[in-house]
Sequence to fold (98 residues):
Amino acid sequence: MTADDQQEFLFAAGDPPRFGLPQCDDPLVSDITRVWGLPIGRKVCGRLKDGENLPALDGRLELASAPDLPFDPRQPLNLRVRGYEFSSRAIAGWAIAE
Fold:
């Protein structure tokens, strides 16, 4: 079989599957937002604790990786704003910028 022989197989009608981390409208993200009390998926202005390479951030707060189940808000979340990854424990303060 050569690359020219390859065909695309669609087994069901509807939207194509999404890969990677869930989007902000996903119920999983809503649950994570509620449990940790962070505005994931929203534009924020934030300050990070001393010792971080970047003291202030502004942009959309995203999950860098999904937390383990069952959710434990005592565990840190891996977050990202504009490509800069940090832990939820590094947040000194934040405000919604929208």
